[in-house]
Amino acid sequence: MPKIVAANWKMNLRRQSAVELAWALKSDGRKCWLFPAFPHLAPVHDALIGSELTLGAQDVSPDADGACTGDVSAEMLADTGCTLVLVGHSERRHGHGETAELLARKLKRALEAGLKPLYCVGETLEQRKAGKAQAVVKDHLSTLAGTEGIAAVAYEPVWAIGTGETATPGQAAEMHAFIREELKKLGLRLPILYGGSVKPENALELMSHPDVDGVLVGGASLELTSLRAIDDAAREIE
Ligand code: PEP
After folding, report:
1. Averaged over 21-46, what is the pLDDT?
2. Which of 4, 9, 10 for mutating ligand 1's site (highest number of atoms within 8 Å of CB)?
3. 186-222: per-residue pLDDT in tens?
4. Rounded to an integer, what distance in angstroms lies between the CA atom of residue 213 and that of residue 222?
5. What does CATH list as the number for 15-220?
6. Where are the domains of the chain?
């Protein structure tokens, strides 16, 4: 299976730079998954027409259309041309205190609207040091019980996101093998991406392991040259 390269642009870029990046990736024939900020979804969607790039949102409301000021519903995202959505990213799970119950509702809404969630799991440094990394990840995965239509799982150790610190290929491979086993117990067979300070310098080594099906990239996905280099690494392994 070709390795997946997903770009989480977070709360970065301006409309023009997001569109330019999308155009450049399209002209290059890339097949990445792109997660721009909400205001950039529509213009990036238009830029991607005729390409093999896939559009996703960074978050979704747990509720259907209605009186939820500031929220964006799954139906609105689908209507804007999104096919993917991030759910459970640590900057929401920890940064915004999103609970398992809330994430389950987001997953349900996304799936009902035909969006495919990219579901993120991962332990904090404190949890890893306490020897609880696998227990935490297992708990995060339990939210997927009974779901159908998930795009992929991303293992993102919280201590590696935006810190410049990356899990070693050994740490990533060990957790990915664990996740695969846990998913099997839930009756799920899904691609498992690694995320956490992925850069051109470490992408090839991380993706070389057969249990690492691709990468979710934050900071290094904002520059065409680095995103291209990471995608080149992914294509090298195919
Ligand atoms: C992310 O946002 O999912 C991420 C992994 O960020 P970074 O690559 O910047 O660590």
Report:
1. 98
2. 10
3. 999 999 999 999 999 999 999 999 999 999 999 999 9
4. 21
5. 3.20.20.70
6. 15-220
